[in-house]
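Input structure tokens:
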């Protein structure tokens, strides 16, 4: 999709409350009341410009519409690999319009600029997006009673 702009979360701290709401609504079992995660803590951790972890915000028509992070925190089944693409969110009314694709390409560029030659992602929901963007299946594992596919992208 043309018209998608990407900015570092570090440069858009004004959006922390909005993105926190996105996280809490998208992943209520983890970030909601009683969940073990803290969206506020994670987003503050993603507020870096040139080191991991870092977050990227997508904009469409000047409005924030998505988020993704490049993380150093390993996926439990593959602790030796990094960095990881994750925490990806696109506003539900704007999904399937290329915003996730733009975020993924921007994460790949960030990883490349940080000197990584590969990037990884573990997902149960974004399989077709990753395949469309040229990622390769590395493994299929059970994680928290769900089948998750681990992908790798050579940069």
């Amino acid at each position: 999709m043309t018209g998608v702009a990407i900015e570092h979360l570090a440069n858009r701290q004004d959006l922390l409350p909005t993105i926190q709401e996105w996280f809490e609504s998208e992943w209520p079992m983890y970030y909601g009341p009683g969940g073990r995660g803290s969206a506020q803590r994670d987003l503050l951790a993603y507020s870096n410009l040139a080191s991991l972890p870092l977050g990227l915000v997508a904009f469409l028509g000047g409005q924030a519409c998505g988020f993704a992070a490049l993380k150093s925190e390993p996926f439990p089944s593959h602790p030796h690999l990094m960095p990881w693409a994750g925490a990806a969110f696109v506003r539900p009314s704007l999904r399937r319009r290329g915003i996730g694709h733009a975020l993924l390409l921007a994460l790949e560029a960030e990883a490349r600029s940080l000197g990584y030659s590969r990037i990884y992602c573990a997902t149960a929901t974004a399989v077709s997006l990753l395949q469309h963007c040229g990622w390769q299946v590395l493994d299929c594992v059970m994680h928290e009673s769900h089948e998750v596919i681990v992908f790798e992208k050579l940069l």
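The chain has one domain: 4-116. Helices lie at 16-26, 28-31, 39-45, 99-113, 127-132.
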